[in-house]
Amino acid sequence: MSSTRTASGTASGKNRTWRNWGGNVSVRPAREVTPASVEELAEAVRAAAAEGLRVKAVGTGHSFTSIAATDGLLIHPGLLTGIRHIDRDAMTVTVEAGTPLKRLNLALAREGLSLTNMGDIMEQTVSGATSTGTHGTGRDSASLAAQIRGLEMVTADGSVLTCSERENPEVFAAARIGLGALGVVTAITFAVEPVFLLTAREEPMPFDRVLAEFDELWAENEHFEFYWFPHTGNTNTKRNNRSAGPEQPVGRLKGWFEDDFLSNGVFQAANWVGRAVPGTVPSIARISSKALSARTYTDIPYKVFTSPRRVRFLEMEYAVPREAVAETLRELKAMVDRSRLRISFPVEVRTAPADDITLSTASGRDSAYIAVHMFRGTPYQAYFTAAERIFTAHEGRPHWGKLHTRDAEYLSRVYPRFGEFTALRDRLDPDRLFRNDYLRRVLGP
Questions:
Q1: Cis bond leading into 246, ω under 30°?
Q2: Taking each helix axis from N to C terminus, what angle separates 381-393 and 325-338, rounded to the nearest 10 degrees?
């Protein structure tokens, strides 16, 4: 194929530049393809290997790292979309890899089904989201990848490999969060359940109180998260728990005012001001932290878990042991308070239970996630470097799709099964067809 679609949806031909959502990664591949079938994708992989081109697949570009960048063949999965099969006996759904989470959630809701847990945005493709370890927050329910029951992918020799707990289990253990290093995912089978209701309770709470009561808040709620506003002692907390109903969604006008106008429109304008005049940021933070009032509503899962995110930013997120989250956050706040940094974005804190995925950030340990953000176009390196120093002191594991500076030497120490993943990579891709600079850094040569 001579044309494809970029992340922004416009037609482009050979040798066009692709950019990610955050605008910090750009790449000019030698060739781009948008295969319409698994067979076409496999043929494209074989042809690239014969030509000596590296191969990467890219979704909607919501990773802040260069995990999908290549100067070789860039594969867009935009025609590999939709639900292949729903198995109501097994309670699974098999979906094409290029399907956006938004379309999957809508389609499942129409079928009276839902994923158990999800992240806070749903713009990514299912393969991009799972391959980088996208997660929400949960006491008992884990990341999107932990909800996978089967995978199909094209490997470096152009063959189609399927895996599950029973079929190629060693591949399944690693490929659910495969970083694009093991092959190109073409279909995913997720566990689903009958659609249910969640009641969300959102309310402000002092930073010190949240940390003092964190274990209790985590234990008493199925899904707990909070946002701390740097330069303040304020947080906004969110507790999501299953509900018998009745359904009581946020009113259309109230939802527009709080989720679109305040959380996106006004917040965007505030960040413009803060970027132009950094000295205003602490005052803006104090106002922002008090802008949203407490509210409670009940709705189906994707309408509770996810929110619109139209203000563009750059992000770093680390998973630390859950028992270390309060100490880590106190150190982060102390660092910000004594520095000259001006931070206009809140810090997001979530949790996940331990899972059995080889390179999951929650692999083998209950985890808490701390995400730091900076408005796009604002210098971020000093803040992220200082935050990363704190996170790594607590054996933090960086999110694979978010900015970090760690390499294979560090990662092999914090992931007990790191060698298991690299050995599988040696078997499935010995010639490193799917290699790029990012994978060379995080997985080694």
A1: yes
A2: 150
According to the model, what pLDDT value does residue 270 have? Answer: 76
Helices (H) and strands (E) in the chain, counts: 15, 22
Q: What is the DSSP string of 324-375?
A: GHHHHHHHHHHHHHHS-----SPEEEEEE--B--TT-TTBTS-EEEEEEEEE
Total-model pTM: 0.92
C-alpha R_g of the chain: 21
- pLDDT tens profile 425-440: 999 999 999 999 999 9
Nearest in space to 444 (alpha carbons), one of 397, 412, 414: 412
What do you get for the CA distance between the two ends of the chain, in Å? 32
User: Residue 50 to residues 1, 180, 184, 426: CA-CA distances in angstroms?
Assistant: 17, 20, 17, 19
Instruction: Report the C-alpha gap between 255 and 258 in whole angstroms.
Output: 5
Which tokens is 407 given?
């390499």
Q: Which residues contact 36 (CB under 8 A, 6 or more apart)?
A: 79, 80
CB 170 within 8 A of CB 424: yes
19 close to 62: Cβ distance less than 8 angstroms: no
Phi (first) and psi of residue 176, to 5 degrees: -65, -35
Mind listing the pLDDT tens digit for each residue in 214-258? 999 999 999 999 999 999 999 999 999 999 989 999 877 666 556
Determine the Cα–Cα distance for residues 109 and 196; give it in Å rounded to an integer.
10
How far is it, in rounded angstroms, from Cα 71 to Cα 401? 19
CA–CA gap between residue 160 and residue 401 (Å, rounded): 25
Estimate the crossing angle of helix 281-288 against helix 267-276, to 10 degrees: 160
If we measure between CA atoms, which residue out of 370, 353, 329 comes closest to residue 225? 370
The CA distances from residue 416 to 38, 179, 381, 397, 419, in Å, are: 34, 17, 29, 12, 8
178/188 Cα distance (integer angstroms): 13
Residues 6+ apart with CB under 8 A from 408: 418, 441, 442, 443, 444
CA 271 to CA 267: how far, in whole Å? 6
The 10 Å Cβ neighbour count of residue 399 is 23
Q: Of 389, 443, 391, 398, which is closest to residue 417 (Cα–Cα)?
A: 443
As a whole number of angstroms, the distance between CA 249 and CA 1 comes to 45
Give the separation between CA 95 and CA 143, rounded to whole angstroms: 17
Q: Rounded distance, CA 291 to CA 293, Å?
A: 7
Distance, in Å, from the CA atom of 136 to the CA atom of 143, rounded to the nearest integer, reads: 6
